[in-house]
Design a protein that fits this description.
The structure is a single chain. With 300 residues, the protein is an alpha/beta fold. It has two domains: 179 residues, NAD(P)-binding Rossmann-like Domain (Rossmann fold), CATH 3.40.50.720; 100 residues, Orthogonal Bundle (N-(1-d-carboxylethyl)-l-norvaline Dehydrogenase, domain 2), CATH 1.10.1040.10. Helix content is 46%, strand content 14%. The chain contains twelve helices and ten strands. The protein has an eight-stranded mixed sheet with strand order 3-2-1-4-5-6-7-8. It has a two-stranded antiparallel ribbon with strand order 9-10. Helix 1 links the parallel strand 1 and strand 2. It binds nicotinamide-adenine-dinucleotide (NAD). The site of nicotinamide-adenine-dinucleotide has 28 residues, from helix 1 and helix 5. Nicotinamide-adenine-dinucleotide (NAD) binds next to helix 1 and helix 5.
Length: 300
């Protein structure tokens, strides 16, 4: 069976990942895009992040100004779910990493979207089978896991839920190729899939080192970048991922495997309570002068 021909994509959630995914869809794949969030100010923030990213591409000479303007014209921001879904052959959900929130959203989306359209989740850890169970067409639900920032990172993990059809997987492979991405297939719907199964315990362990007072964040990051050759230290990476998102991923893995080795470091939970969410809130393990600034400064 041949895959779905995609012309329009609806991206649900205009945060760190959603804005970047919308940009890749419009810029590289040439799709028409609708970008949804729950409040106008959040949609506006997502659009501002896309403009900021495009202007960086223009100043580096990667694209020219007319192309950047064309990309912006292809992206239609909205706060109305029905408007966002209208005419979309592919829906990419990039809403907050919260199982209940996502299940509620999948239920609503399933009522409104075309039964032939594909519903792909950018979740980092939540079961695709669980999300699919809230829809009328679980064969059309699949994991499509981008990496941060989606504009630059070349990989998409494709995750099969228990009922995902071959045609859906084929369509997502084709869409990923159109977006200029490489893919890997996660054959089984297992918490954290491939990359986060390996990465999250390492990031969590770095948070434990801070929590136990073993070393300062700068030294932990220096040790891992210089000692292991990582391009970015684990604590800086946690700030980029978002402490709230990282905590949710750890919690999903802990519950999914029912194994204490995935228990989140207590300082992650404390930081979320205190609103120290990393780069997006201005402070996490480091201070971030403005949400769009890329230079990190060690926090006192
Ligand atoms: N942050 C990362 O590095 C990263 C990497 C890969 C995948 N992910 C996954 O991507 C998803 C989004 O993460 P993020 O980092 O962009 O989070 P984020 O907090 O930056 O953005 C999430 C956005 O979803 C919006 N939202 C919440 N409920 C919604 C709804 N019902 N409809 C539409 N929008 C809604 C929120 O208002 C928010 O703007 C999560 O599932 C996360 O696990 C994150």
């Amino acid at each position: 069976m041949s895959g779905t021909q995609i012309r329009k994509v609806a991206v649900l959630g205009a945060g760190l990942m959603g804005h970047g995914i919308a940009q890749v869809c419009a810029q590289t794949a040439g799709y028409e895009v609708s970008l949804l969030d729950v409040k106008q100010e959040l949609v506006d923030r997502g659009v501002a992040m896309i403009k900021d990213s495009l202007s960086k591409f223009v100043s580096k000479g990667t694209i020219d100004k007319p192309k950047a303007d064309e990309v912006m014209r292809r992206i239609r921001p909205t706060t109305d779910l029905e408007t966002a879904l209208e005419g979309a052959q592919l829906v990419i959900e990039a809403a907050s990493e919260n199982p209940k929130l996502k299940v509620d959203l999948y239920h609503k989306v399933s009522e409104l979207m075309s039964p032939k359209s594909i519903l792909a989740s950018n979740t980092s850890s939540i079961s695709i089978t669980l999300l699919a169970s809230a829809t009328k067409n679980p064969e059309n639900v699949v994991g499509m896991h981008f990496f941060n920032p989606p504009q630059l990172m070349p990989l998409i993990e494709i995750i099969r839920g228990a009922k995902t059809s071959d045609a859906t997987v084929d369509s997502i492979k084709a869409a990923a190729m159109q977006m200029g991405k490489e893919t890997v297939l996660c054959k089984k719907d297992s918490p954290g899939f491939i990359v986060n199964r390996v990465l999250m315990p390492a990031l969590n362990e770095a948070a434990f080192l801070v929590s136990e007072g073993v070393a300062d964040p700068e030294d932990i990051d220096k040790a891992i970048t210089l000692g292991l050759g990582w391009p970015m230290g684990p604590l800086k990476l946690l700030d980029y991922v978002g402490i709230d998102t990282a905590l949710s991923i750890s919690d999903v893995m802990m519950q999914g495997f029912d194994d204490n080795k995935y228990r989140a470091s207590p300082n992650l939970r404390e930081m979320v309570r205190a609103g120290l969410l990393g780069r997006k809130s201005g402070k996490g393990f480091y201070e971030w002068p403005s949400p769009s600034t890329t230079k990190a400064k060690a926090s006192p």
